[in-house]
Amino acid sequence: MTAKYMLDTNVVSAIVSRRSEKLLGKVTATPPGQFCVSAITAGEIEVGLALRPEATRLRHAVSLFMAEVNILPWNGEVALSYGRLRARLVKAGLGLGSIDMLIAAHSLHEGRILVTNDKSFFAIPGLSVEDWNA
């Protein structure tokens, strides 16, 4: 089954930390196999864990969660999509952090709905975005 939703880093963090009941309810109500994350998000999550080596429970929760989602690889085709997207946004005067731009390009390339609570993603033309905390 192809995953419908790509989860942004802030959403994965909120899920494994159990910070949002509304978000957890939506995740629980969504059929299994509908979630994926970008390899970029997996890397960002690992940075957070590496900065908190004492957070063994959190590392365990992340491991369990990541075992249940498909981690989509970053490849040459995605890199080209990123380059085109970034050029379009620069020309349009739209700014987005580098990591967020990589995730947005990956979601667009894969045709996934990006689930995030970061409002800056909503300004990207053509990107399907949902905020499950709203």
What does this structure look like?
The protein is of the alpha/beta class. It has a single domain (5-130), classed as 3-Layer(aba) Sandwich (Rossmann fold). 54% of the residues lie in helices and 11% in strands. It contains 6 helices and 5 strands; from the N terminus they run βααβααβααββ. The protein has helices spanning 9-17, 21-29, 39-50, 56-68, 76-92, 98-110; strands at residues 5-7, 35-38, 70-72, 113-115, 129-130. The protein has a 5-stranded parallel β-sheet, with helices on both faces. α1 packs across α4 (56-68) and α5 crosses α6 (98-110). The longest helix is centred in the middle third of the chain and has 17 residues, at 76-92. It is globular, with a radius of gyration of 15 Å. It starts with a strand and ends with a strand. The mean pLDDT is 92.
Give keywords.
134 residues, Rossmann fold, five-stranded parallel β-sheet, 54% helix
Helices and strands in order:
Blueprint lengths: L4 E3 L1 H9 L3 H9 L5 E4 H12 L5 H13 L1 E3 L3 H17 L5 H13 L2 E3 L13 E2 L4
Parallel strand pairs: 1-2, 1-4, 2-3, 4-5
**Assembly of the depicted chains:** single chain
Tally of alpha and pi helices? 6
Question: What is the average of the pLDDT values?
Answer: 92
pLDDT under 50 segments (min length 5)? none
Instruction: Classify the helix fraction into a percent range.
Output: 40-55%
Sheet having the most strands: 5 strands, parallel
Shape: globular
Condensed summary:
This protein is about 55% helix and about 10% strand. It is an alpha/beta fold and about 130 residues long.
